[in-house]
Amino acid sequence: MSNVAEHLKDILIKFRWIVIGIVIYFYGILLKNEIFSNASKDGLMINSWDVSLYLLNDIYIIVYFIVPIVLFISATIVLSDFNYMTLIRLGTTKKWVFRSLRRFWSKTSILLLILVFMSFYLTIGVPFSWDWSQYSKSNISHDTLGEIGLVFTAPFVAFLFQLGLLVLAISILHIFLSLFYVTIKKRNIFLIMCAILFLGSVVGFKLFPEEYAFLSPTTYFTLKNFIDSFNYPLIGLVVLIGLFIIFYLYILLLDINKRHYFQSIKSYLPHGIYLILCLTGIVSISISADPSKDTILDVLVLSFQGSNSESFSYFSFFYYSIVFFGLTYLINLDISREIEQIGYYKIIRYRNLEKWFWSWFRKFLLKVIFFLLLLGMFSIIIGAIVGLKTNFDVTVLYVDWYTILYHFIINGFLQITFYILSVFIISWGKREASYGLILISIFMVLMLPGINQQGVIPVGLNSLVNLLEHSPYRITLVLLIANIMIYLLIKYLFTKSFKN
User: Fold this and answer.
1) Which residue ranges make up each domain of the chain?
2) Residue 437 burial by CB count (10 A; 0-12/13-18/19+): exposed, middle or buried?
3) CA-to-CA distance for 14 and 310, rounded, in angstroms?
4) Cα–Cα distance, 328 to 330 (Å, whole number)
5) Number of neighbours of residue 37 by Cβ within 10 angstroms
6) How many C-beta atoms surround the C-beta of residue 348 within 10 A?
7) Residue 207 predicted with pLDDT over 70
8) What is the C-alpha to C-alpha distance for residues 499 and 496, in angstroms, rounded to an integer?
9) How many C-beta atoms surround the C-beta of residue 396 within 10 A?
10) Could you give the CA distance from residue 480 to residue 368 in angstroms, rounded to a whole number?
């Protein structure tokens, strides 16, 4: 009886792959007829690569057919294979993840072979050539392969790149799901994550703006979307390989004492998240820049342009808030801990509160300078990597490059110093970090349009867009006066506290 059941199961499995092949075939016929129709209408010659690559790069069959099948295979393997008996037999969770990946590809490889086979089978009767066809080179609006032809000199190379991209992206997807389930061990949450990945794929290619397209999973499944999202394909490969390395490092950490590990990195987690957000903003702006006209310094300007009373955009406003107010909040946490640790021993050691203040405050100032230089260097390096012009011309602002650098470093330093001194006063008076967050919220409100029209309120003045309305040296003067006044207030509070 069991042999009969196994035989029926094998028949159903084979029938399933046959159905998948039939669906891909008939959909490919529709695409092939569309290519013939468009080429005939424009009087252009086509070859077999047009049909093959057109099918492999069709976003609809990828999103609504291939991705759901891949997610189903991955979820089925993870849920059925992960159990404590298997873990005991294998010895480590790391070995289970690699075994899961092998089992995943033992099934998914059939899907990939069917897709590739159909992409070639549909070319029967179509002229063959090792070069791009007239249709691929035409740059007409309905041609999918025009941009691919501009990047790859030969269609066979593009085909190999497409296969490699699919293998790498699908592998990373399964590794992510495996690690996610190993971490949470909750079936319902795991299935919700699978649904989120599918919906993210659907929403990603329809609604995500070009500068955020790299966040959509579908970007990494088709060569066309890959090239559209990354002006320089090498950047996209770096992103994928970077994800693979991160997941691999996490796999290596699966079997260590997680509680001890997470306790050791807990204090660095906010700083890590903050740095990732800062770098993500710079990378997204670099990717969306135009290599034909934008320069490496334009990345710096576009990343840290901020907002003022006349020029406002949500992305610039929130990214400024993340970078500068985020840094202020992290420093505010350290300030609160420093204030909590103050006692008679420290007062006796430093003899007065002002010496105690400068003993740790100067370290924060050095960190601020280093952080600004790091942001500037990273913006320029990423701009160079994505292929922007490597000169110091500024095309997005009619301002000299040395004025940009002066404003970014000098006024940026003075602005952050003002933020830090302001939150220190609040923390000193209230002795709670939450009040510093309230002050930061007030600063954000003061940056909204129509409030600081004269540029006299020392908030957001280091936004590069302010150079369109105000001299950088005037901004320096305003920030210097504001810092001196707030420092004198701190000295007064120290004197008052010492007398009490």
Assistant:
1) 2-266, 281-499
2) middle
3) 65
4) 6
5) 11
6) 8
7) no
8) 5
9) 18
10) 16
* Token pair belonging to 420: 């830090």
Tokens at 41, concatenated: 């209408």
C-alpha torsion 70→73→76→77, nearest 10: -110
Nearest residue to 416 (alpha-carbon basis) of 325, 497, 300? 325
AA letter at 371 = F
pLDDT for 1: 47
Angle of helix 48-56 relative to helix 2-42, nearest 10 degrees? 120
How confident is the model over 132-158, as pLDDT tens digits?
887 877 765 455 676 777 777 888 888
Give the C-alpha separation, 96 to 115, whole Å: 28
Assess contact for 51 and 136: CB atoms under 8 A. Answer: no
pTM: 0.57
- Of 411, 417, 412, 415, nearest to 487 by C-alpha is 417
Taking CA 368 as the corner, what is the angle to CA 363 and CA 370, rounded to the nearest 5 degrees?
95
Distance CA 43, CA 10 (A): 48
Sequence-distant (≥ 6) Cβ neighbours of residue 478 within 8 angstroms: 455, 456, 458, 461
- Mean pLDDT value across residues 377-402: 80
Least confident of 19-23, 95-99, 116-120, 396-400: 396-400
